UniProtKB/TrEMBL annotation:
It comes from the Eukaryota. PROSITE patterns: G_SEPTIN (PS51719). The lineage of its organism: Eukaryota, Metazoa, Chordata, Craniata, Vertebrata. This is Septin. One of its GO terms (cellular component) is cytoplasm.
Length: 398
């Protein structure tokens, strides 16, 4: 009797159930299938342990073929930007991790404006994304925007050096900066504490806008709130890196062996390595990507559109002056060298849309109804473009 009641109740409940509660599962399934990507930049003078820390963070050897320069070569070397990409997989979830390194930063005798090539690199990635997004093949955009920059601060100075201030101030509007205090095993716990306070004060004093952890919701449990506060108080993360595994208290751990003992990289009593890794991978990776997209990239985009509008208005005014009739006319087509290129892209796009394979059969059974316009590029596009030259590149607008 009781079983029947239960069944009836379930049937009644099913009648009221539309099914959108499964939406998160659908999103989850799609994201896992697509895989994730993340681009991390490391900056700071050479020898501060950047490559060692990256290898320790992701348990890979990303710097197998690194070429270390001697002192003489370093004096003349300009800042270089190098990129290493690895595909890592954990429990079926794939992550394409890109590490952008900045060898040569801060190594020269005169380091004036040595942050410039780093800033240019970040802008170039935004520009490429902007061009791809404004173009015709939006389906296969490769996103190379930098989501986070770990900035290494030397443990040997008294707080921030002028170069640190200059770098962070020049880049804080372009990328999420997370400052780290390098080689924390060279400092005593009291020194680490003092240096962290000093660096935080200086960050405030110089108006540097480092990455801000989002505030946690008021309904979160107390444990979570406390962890969140601890994370915020850890800035700059005091880190230790090591590429070697040593034996400590019968366990094999990543650490550094000294005559007086072992420093364990993953021991929270020794440094903030675990906190940093959890923040980067487990808790804030998506937020770092969101802030990149919603704040830094949006800023860049708004800037670009503003300068393009200004150029178009200028061009219009110039044309107005040279025209006999003073009547208004539509936005001019700037004589373009890429007209044929645009036509070629349109033809390719048409071809792609015509030959695009139907969704895979497995997905079809899962989603019998076509999803509403998931790929903006497949929307009918008006074949009208205007081209504007900006920074010597031609932007194409649909
Ligand atoms: P990078 O030039 O910034 O990439 O620095 P490397 O990772 O190549 O490290 C330079 C040197 O510092 C190497 O000899 C490392 O073994 C050492 N090193 C790296 N991390 C640490 C650390 O956390 N503490 C100490 N004491 N040495 C480190």
């Amino acid at each position: 009797m009781c079983v029947k009641d239960d069944n009836e109740r379930r049937k009644d409940h099913d009648k009221e159930y539309v099914g959108f509660a499964t939406l998160p599962n659908q999103v989850h399934r799609k994201s896992v299938k697509k895989g994730f990507d993340f681009t991390l930049m490391v900056a700071g003078e050479s020898g501060l342990g950047k490559s060692t820390l990256v290898n320790s963070l992701f348990l890979t050897d990303l710097y197998k073929d690194r070429n270390l320069l001697n002192a003489e070569e370093r004096i003349t070397q300009t800042v270089e930007i190098t990129k290493h990409t690895v595909d890592i997989e954990e429990k079926g979830v794939k992550l394409k991790l890109t590490i952008v390194d900045t060898p040569g930063f801060g190594d020269a005798v005169n380091n004036t404006e040595c942050w410039k090539s780093v800033a240019d690199y970040i802008d170039q990635q935004f520009e490429q994304y902007f061009r791809d997004e404004s173009g015709l093949n939006r389906k296969n955009i490769q996103d190379n925007r930098v989501h986070c920059c770990l900035y290494f601060i030397s443990p040997f100075g008294h707080g921030l050096r002028p170069l640190d201030v200059e770098f962070m101030k020049a880049l804080h509007e372009k990328v999420n900066i997370v400052p780290v205090l390098a080689k924390a095993d060279t400092l005593t716990p009291a020194e680490v504490k003092k240096k962290k306070i000093k660096i935080r004060e200086e960050i405030e004093q110089y108006g540097i806008k480092i990455y801000q952890f989002p505030d946690c919701d008021s309904d979160e449990d107390e444990d979570f709130k406390q962890q969140d506060q601890e994370l915020k108080d850890s800035i700059p993360f005091a880190v230790i890196g090591s590429n070697t595994v040593v034996e400590a208290k019968g366990k094999r751990v990543r650490g550094r062996l000294y005559p007086w003992g072992i420093v364990e990289v993953e021991n929270p009593a020794h440094c903030d390595f675990v906190k940093l890794r959890n923040m980067l991978v487990r808790t804030h990776m998506q937020d770092l990507k969101d802030v990149t997209r919603e704040t830094h990239y949006e800023n860049y985009r708004a800037h670009c559109i503003q300068s393009m509008t200004r150029m178009v208005v200028k061009e219009r005014n110039r044309n107005k002056l040279t025209r006999e009739s003073g009547t208004d006319f539509p936005i001019p087509m700037v004589p373009s060298v890429t007209d044929t290129e645009t036509e070629k892209l349109i033809r390719e796009k048409d071809e792609e849309v015509r030959h695009s394979p139907s969704r895979d059969p497995h997905e079809q059974t899962q989603h019998p109804e076509p999803e509403p316009c998931e790929d903006p590029a497949s929307e009918p596009h008006p074949k009208m473009c205007f081209n504007v030259t900006i920074n010597e590149h031609c932007m194409i607008f649909e």
